[in-house]
Each structure stands twice: as C-alpha cells, then as structure tokens.
Design brief:
7-stranded parallel barrel; single chain; TIM Barrel
C-alpha cells in the first residue's frame, strides 16, 4: 500500500474512535442516509472501464460490516411510507441502492446482502438489458481511463446518449478497441432472468434508471416523456411485486422540468447522486439526496460518513 494511502487509513481509523466522531453521531440519530453504489466485482482490476464505479467484493463486505455496526438498514420504500423507524433507538437508518443494474451487482452484491437479510434497491435502465456495456466503461477501457474532459463532453455535447458518445469516439474505439482488455461479464448489464432470480431471492426492490440512460436535463419534452414512462411500465409489467415508483436520475443530472415530468409519469421518489443525509421533512420527494459510494472509499471512511462526518446533515 502506498505511504499516502496507509497514512489516510490510519487517520480514518483514529478519527473513527475519536470524540469528534462520537459527538457527530448525535447529529444523525434517527436520520436516514441513502447510499448510491454502482457495481461490485470480484477483485480490483486496472483498465476495466470507469474503475471508480466498481467496488471489489471483499471491500463491499467490509462496507456492509460498517453499515451494520453503525446503522439499521431499511427498504427504500420505507422512506416515504413512514415505516423507516429505526429498530434500535438512536441509530441512523440506511437504504442501500445500486444504479445501472450491473451483472456484478446482481451476482455478487445482492447475494451478500441477502445472506445478511438486508434489503436493497436496484435502479434499472431496461434499454441495456441484457448484456450491454456502458459507454463510460468501454471508453475507459480503450483510453486507459475516463478523463474528465471526455466525460463532460459526453454529458453535454452527446447529451449522455450511449450511441452518440460511441460515434464521437469512433476513431478511438477503432484504433485501440481491438487491443483493449475485453469487458468482463460483471461490467455488463444484467439479464431479465437474473433480475427475476435476484428479486425472488430478495429482499430486493427495483426502480427505474430511465430507458436508455441519457442526460435528462438535455432531453426534449417528448424525449423526457418516453425515457420516464417506458421503464416504469416495463417494471410494473415484469416485476409487479417488486417495482417501486422511484427513479434515479442518470449522472445525477436533473432540473425543475425533469422533476415535473417525473411526477407526471407517476414517480413518487426521485434520487440524485449526491447531497448527503435526507432532510427531516421531505419537501421535494422528486429530488432526494444520496451519498455516492466510490470504489476508493474505505470501510472506515464509510463509517465516518455514517457517523455524520464529511457529509451534509440538514438541520
């Protein structure tokens, strides 16, 4: 382990048992934090797409240990129904969510959660089911990492649309793609059958992640209506007992128009990718915050955030 990383780990461990962490825990008693994961893979692997999204399974298990130590895990649906009362007085509540419905999430993360009896929600983009890869992973593979300028251009110029990003970078894919490491199965979107098996094994609920994962803030009104209505209808048809009227906005990008369209489409909850702890009163349920959990976050680092440090806690 590099010296800087080792020093950071030591500092996190020391802070976790400090008076500052203990005092901060008082601020989050009875509060709710929604965690936003993306994918879980067997082992850390360089050059495999956008590596910030793919958490190694051993680390994910340590994350779950930390979550169970400091919080009570509740279903996402309990947030709006008022059934999210903590089983242990004074402990915060955590809802575990995953964006993109990666196969690694379905094959590795959900069974680990099920073994512990913990609920989770997966936000699915049905247009990628089954087996499709995502532009950010493929571009990261062929370029050796996803650079921020490429990401910004993809979200704005290409409006986050998978086919448009691939056309813009066609030369890179053609020149390097044949020599780039192939995408692992865990970096592909899952299949309908795997989703059904996971839902049956539970406790799992499913929400929408639009149909084709565009930047909703750059969609036309007709595109918005299509991207929001199709996945909700698909979920209700394929998973009537497990679907939620909830959406996770791709890339965390939204606007007042997006929220209004989501409400019109029938959603009762809309989730961002940042923002920290939920407010005590959910004044705007179509713009609810989450805590993004990157692959580089240690278990102690997550525990500090569950203690109320390094996260926004609304008054």
């Amino acid at each position: 382990m590099p010296l800087a990383s080792a020093a950071k780990r030591m500092a996190e461990a020391a802070l976790l048992v400090s008076g500052a962490a203990a005092a901060s825990r008082g601020r989050v008693r009875g509060r709710t934090l929604v965690l936003a994961y993306h994918n879980v893979i067997e082992h850390r692997a360089a050059g495999r797409g956008d590596t910030s999204l793919h958490l190694p399974l051993p680390l994910f298990r340590h994350h779950l240990d930390a979550i169970q130590r400091f919080a009570d895990v509740v279903p996402l649906s309990a947030i709006l129904t008022g059934d999210a009362d903590s089983a242990s007085a004074g402990r915060p509540r955590v809802a575990v969510t995953f964006d993109d419905a990666y196969r690694g999430t379905i094959r590795l993360a959900l069974p680990e959660l099920a073994r512990r009896g913990l609920p989770a929600t997966v936000f699915v983009p049905p247009g990628f089911v089954p087996d499709a890869t995502f532009w950010w992973d493929d571009l990261g593979r062929v370029t050796g990492g996803l650079a921020e300028p490429d990401r910004s251009a993809a979200l704005e110029q290409c409006r986050g649309r998978d086919a448009d990003v691939r056309r813009q970078h066609a030369a890179s894919f053609a020149a390097v793609g044949a020599h780039a490491p192939p995408p692992g199965d865990d970096l592909r979107c899952t299949s309908l059958g795997e989703l059904r098996d996971a839902a049956a094994a539970g406790p799992v609920s499913l929400g929408a992640h639009t149909w084709s994962h565009p930047n909703l803030a750059r969609c036309t009104p007709s595109e918005l209506a299509d991207e929001l209505s199709r996945p909700l209808a698909w979920l209700r048809q394929e998973f009537p007992a497990h679907s939620l009227s909830a959406i996770s906005y791709p890339y965390g990008l939204h606007s007042a128009a997006v929220e209004a369209a989501a409400r019109s489409a029938g959603y009762t909850m809309g989730f961002l990718i940042e923002g920290g702890w939920l407010p005590g009163t959910l004044a705007d349920p179509l713009a609810l915050p989450r805590l993004n959990v990157p692959a580089g976050l240690s278990a102690d680092g997550l525990a500090l955030r569950l203690s109320g440090l390094f996260t926004r806690v609304p008054t």
